[in-house]
Amino acid sequence: MDYKHITVLVEKYWEGETSLEEEAVLRDFFSTPHAGLPEALQEAAPLFGYFHREAEKVWEAPPVKIVRLSPWRHWMKYAAVIMVAIGIGYALKQHQRREQQVLVALQQQEMNDPQKALDETKRALQLLAKNLHKGTSKMQQLSYFSEATAVVEGKED
Question: Of 35, 64, 105, 157, which is most buried with the most CB atoms under 10 A?
């Protein structure tokens, strides 16, 4: 192989401008010993020789030691999670209880005044009467429709 071409590739390698194919050419060239290499190539020969030897090595994985961990080994983690869950549950329960106490207190406060209680009762009864009136008016319309259907079919009462 032409030493000038290899010298150019080595220079490109030192500049970091070689492609993977050019580096493969360099590894192949330096994988075999050459007599009478120019001095510039003799400096790179040990490096590429090392790369070639390391690429040929077969690395064996170290034996894997299987360690069985007991699920209770880290019991503090589990205890902490349980304590946090209990704390959150307790806080929510206390919040609901406090909220309910406030609502009961407000309702008692409103019902202590007889006028307010009377007004609230009147409003509830008016709402009931209004909804009941809607229902009876719909029933009257249904009754008229039923009578008209009977007349058309010839089934008079």
Answer: 105
Residue 29 buriedness (CB in 10 A; 0-12 / 13-18 / 19+) = buried
Residue at 101: amino acid letter: Q
d(CA 30, CA 16): 18
Strands (E), the chain: none
Look up residue 35 and give its DSSP letter.
T
Which positions ≥6 away from 6 have C-beta within 8 Å? Answer: 25, 26, 29, 41
Task: Report pLDDT digits (tens) over 35-47.
Answer: 777 777 888 888 8
What is the distance between the alpha carbons of residues 6 and 22, in angstroms, rounded to a whole number? 9
Residue corresponding to tokens 């069985």: 68
Query: In this structure, what token pair is assigned to residue 72?
Result: 């209770």
pLDDT at 155: 67
- Count of alpha carbons within 13 angstroms of residue 67, beta-carbon side: 2
Beta carbons within 8 Å of 33's beta carbon, 6+ residues apart: none
